[in-house]
Amino acid sequence: MATKIRLARRGSKKRPFYQIVAADSRMPRDGRFIEKLGTYNPLLPKDREDRVVIDIERVQAWLAHGATPTDRVSRMLEAAGALPKKERANMKKAEPGKKAKERAEARAAKAAEAAAPADAE
Length: 121
What we know:
The protein is an alpha+beta fold. About 35% of the residues lie in helices and about 20% in strands. It has a domain at about 5-80: CATH 3.30.1320.10. The protein has a five-stranded mixed beta sheet with strand order 4-3-2-1-5. The longest helix has 23 residues, at about 100-120. It is elongated and about 75 Å long.
């Protein structure tokens, strides 16, 4: 059985609240789970202690049995010190595309040409 440590959504519409659970990977996100390991309330400020509450001992036991945490849960576990920090790929999503770069270079060249005759006088 492939076990995952993941978030299961609770709470009403527009008021999210998550449980951190150990579940069979074939079960739906909010479906049946094996054990509740903690909670996550994204509506609380980031500096509050009870924003993320995790039973570290039980998480370590599940990890020892071969459970794999999802990306979001692994980030929470890294912040709690239960997992070592791992390097993540920077996908460069904020970088402009090829055509936008070409337009910016053309604009810069045009501005340099306009500034050059003003310096010559």
